[in-house]
Amino acid sequence: MPKIEIFTQPGCPYCHRAVALLQAKGVPFTEINAPHGTAEREEAIKRSGGQRTVPQIFVDGVSLGGCDDLMKLDQTGKLDPLLGKK
């Protein structure tokens, strides 16, 4: 099973939407609270190649991008293989 991490911020509707999709997929993931100005947010920015928005989603250390990117992967059938689902 791949390691899935999602950096989020409280009150962010895009974060809630991305988390809801991952929950619906039934995959284990780690949600990391990363409000603006925190070390966690800086880590997400660094790991994503400079993306400053949340959520930032990583699978096995590779950035998938944000909520819209996650939704597009799902709509095109490319997300399940990345999440280790058949």
UniProtKB/TrEMBL annotation:
Coiled coil: none annotated. GO terms for molecular function: glutathione disulfide oxidoreductase activity. It holds the Pfam family Glutaredoxin. InterPro entries: GLR_AS, Glutaredoxin, Glutaredoxin_subgr, GRX_bact, Thioredoxin-like_sf. Keywords: Cytoplasm, Disulfide bond, Electron transport, Redox-active center, Transport. GO terms for biological process: cell redox homeostasis; cellular response to oxidative stress. Residues 4-62 form the Glutaredoxin domain. Signal peptide: none annotated. Gene3D superfamilies: Glutaredoxin. SUPFAM superfamilies: Thioredoxin-like (SSF52833). GO terms for cellular component: cytoplasm. Has a glutathione-disulfide oxidoreductase activity in the presence of NADPH and glutathione reductase. Reduces low molecular weight disulfides and proteins. NCBIfam families: GRX_bact. Belongs to the glutaredoxin family. This is Glutaredoxin. It comes from Formicincola oecophyllae.
